[in-house]
Amino acid sequence: MNYTLHQLQIFLKVVETKSITKASEELYLTQPAVSIQMRNLQNQFEIPLTEVVGRKLYITEFGFEIALIAQRIIDEVDAINYKTLAFKGLLSGRLNFSVVSTGKYVMPYFLTDFLRNNKGIDLNMEVTNKSKVISSLENNEVDFALVSVLPNDVKLNSEVLLENKLYLIGNREAVIPKTPYEKSIFNDLQLIYREEGSATRLVMEQFFEKNEIKVNMKMQLTSNEAVKQAVISGLGYSIMPLIGAKNELETKDLQIIPVVGFPIKSDWRIIWLKGKSLSPVALAYLEFIKKEKNKISETYFSWINAF
């Protein structure tokens, strides 16, 4: 057997994404380069690691077994690197985050300086919907998660980073009244929803339930970017976090439509399991964020106060 660490890393990314194309994008490699390394790895086994059925790639049972071993190998190599850095007096290890999709507009700003000042730390950050974020946290797969709505049935610690504001958003052709619309305006709007499991959708539905408002759901989409483009194109309106619409509001492609009772407010916060034994890296990050969060908020997010 002459497989390389590089081949194992590529194989693990293919297993994760179940796609040569997606793996190449996430690894910043060309598709042919990934295919060649996968073929070189496969040539060392008599049993298929993957199979293609109708243009879709599947991982075989044998492939999943090899992936588990490959992950252990990569983890041990990482441990060697981290141990080397530790002996040099450098903080080292991996920081694992799970972030709700709209949180991608927030979290990087609260990580940059910490990672810049600690070169021995690797970041693994998954961006997904709220349901999967909470699942990762409950399964102890991550150190921290970023959410804007706290789950009710999980014992957590939390640290508030930033206020989250949600507004009714329309495109540049939307009529802006001199005084805010009454909440009954929602009876007449075609609303675009996020998918089930999204925190934004949960906040919307809680608002409508609390105010006994019946709405017309025009469509549901699986990302904040998709919702923005649908609103911009005139397909409908949506309730959206301000944090993800800054550029479009500045260019007037999107407009805030004033409605009584808005904005809906919550907080962006990092959360972690109560009683969890945090790693030295996670503890160092927590100390950093408690010390620096106000400065980061003021530097990068003061524009929110204008709305």
- Shape assignment: globular
Q: State the name of the first-level CATH class of the largest domain.
A: Alpha Beta
Tally of DSSP helical segments: 10
CATH topology of the largest domain: D-Maltodextrin-Binding Protein, domain 2
* Range of helix content: 40-55%
Strand content is 15-25%
Average pLDDT taken over every residue:
88
What would CATH call the architecture of the largest domain? 3-Layer(aba) Sandwich
What is the total domain count?
Answer: 3
User: Would you list the SSEs in sequence order as H and E?
Assistant: HHHEEHEHEHEEEHEHEHEEH
**Cα separation of the termini:** 61 Å
CATH superfamily of the largest domain: Periplasmic binding protein-like II
Helices and strands in order:
Layout: H1 5-17, H2 20-27, H3 31-42, E1 50-53, E2 56-59, H4 61-87, E3 93-100, H5 112-117, E4 121-128, H6 130-138, E5 144-147, E6 156-171, E7 190-194, H7 199-210, E8 216-221, H8 224-232, E9 238-241, H9 246-250, E10 254-257, E11 264-273, H10 280-301
Parallel strand pairs: 3-4, 3-5, 7-8
Antiparallel strand pairs: 1-2, 5-11, 6-9, 6-10, 6-11
If you had to describe this structure to a student in words, what would you say it looks like?
With 307 residues, the protein is of the alpha/beta class. It has three domains: 5-86, Arc Repressor Mutant, subunit A (Orthogonal Bundle); 89-162 and 267-306, D-Maltodextrin-Binding Protein, domain 2, CATH 3.40.190; 164-265, 3-Layer(aba) Sandwich (D-Maltodextrin-Binding Protein, domain 2), CATH 3.40.190.290. Helices cover 40% and strands 24% of the residues. It has helices spanning 5-17, 20-27, 31-42, 61-87, 112-117, 130-138, 199-210, 224-232, 246-250, 280-301, and strands at 50-53, 56-59, 93-100, 121-128, 144-147, 156-171, 190-194, 216-221, 238-241, 254-257, 264-273. Strands 3, 4, 5, 6, 9, 10 and 11 form a seven-stranded mixed β-sheet that branches. Strands 1-2 form a two-stranded antiparallel ribbon. Helix 1 packs across helix 3. It is globular.
